[in-house]
Amino acid sequence: METPRTRPTRKAVIPVAGMGTRFLPATKAVPKELLPVVDRPALQYIVEEAARAGLREVLMVTGRNKAAIEDFFDRTPELETALEKKGDAGRLAAVHESTDVAQVHFVRQGEARGLGHAVLQAAAFVGEEPFAVLLGDDLIDARDHLLEQMLAVQAEHGGSVVALLDVGKENIDKYGAVAVEPGGSEDVVTITGLVEKPPVEEAPSSLAIIGRYVLAPEVFGVLRETAPGRGGEIQLTDALATLVERGQPVHGVVFGGRRYDTGDKLDYLKAVIRLASEREDLGPALRSWLTDFVADLPAEGASQA
């Protein structure tokens, strides 16, 4: 008999209610999730990742001034008709991709009370089955099947699974950190404790939680009881720590692949350049230009008169 523990994961939740303050002034008018990475919004990459992993039911938790996100995933008959009349099959297909990749639903987070509170808004959508949470600032390269591996770990062990990255002890105070024990394979660990943005000297390890989760539905009950933590917000990390304390399994998948942090200006630029340089239509010309550009840069410390 199928139980909540053994049900396959079929749904994904993407919180997109953040204000994008690190990208002001652009994000005064454009949601940060729609800033282009080459020629597609970062958010489209995230939805495509969920769909590739078999999660074609997607809920976006939005906030005020995010109507453009709903518009992006809606049909645009006027634009489609204009492209059809021009015979522009390539761009028409690209427009269809954004609406056909998954069934996208929306719910509003009425007030910004943290990631845990955003996830809690998905309770009715998810029901009593495990679900994935994908954060829009983290792009995982399509060639690295992190989410698929996390789904497989959850199917084998039950409970919840988080993605981990070794960020070095000196950077761990910017992330949720975990204490771990070996979990049966080189890149899968058992999590024994979690803490949100600990001081460097108090961090249990240099393994940081990054923006991919596969969560058991029991997390909703815990989130309802979780008091505001760091920053006065309801932290998902705190809820996961409670699950660990209650003896529920929480595993981590240590990721060693390609990740792009599009929430950081420098990493955002790196993501655009890296992904564009690998495309057949843009890569050769861009790589040639970059080579010439770097060669023409003045030596460090030289006069730029």
Give me some keywords for this one:
305 residues, alpha/beta, nine-stranded mixed beta sheet, two-stranded antiparallel ribbon, 13 strands, 35% helix
Give a brief description.
The chain has 305 residues and is of the alpha/beta class.
List how many beta strands DSSP finds.
13
Order of helices and strands: EEEHEHHHEHHEEHEEEEHHEEHH
Largest sheet: 9 strands, mixed
Structural class: alpha/beta
* Number of discrete helical segments: 11
| Helical residue percent band | 25-40%
Please give the order of strands in the largest beta sheet.
5-4-1-6-11-8-12-10-9
For the CA atoms, what is the radius of gyration? 21 Å
Q: Can you give the mean pLDDT? A: 86
Residue windows where pLDDT falls under 50 for at least 5 positions:
none
Q: Give the overall shape.
A: globular
- Calculate the terminal CA-CA distance, rounded to whole Å: 76 Å
Strand content: 15-25%
Walk me through the structure:
The protein has 305 residues and is α/β, with parallel strands linked by helices. 35% of the residues lie in helices and 23% in strands. The strands form three sheets. Strands 5-4-1-6-11-8-12-10-9 form a nine-stranded mixed sheet. α3 runs antiparallel to α4. The chain starts with 10 loop residues before the first strand and ends in a 9-residue tail after the last helix. The relative contact order is 0.15.
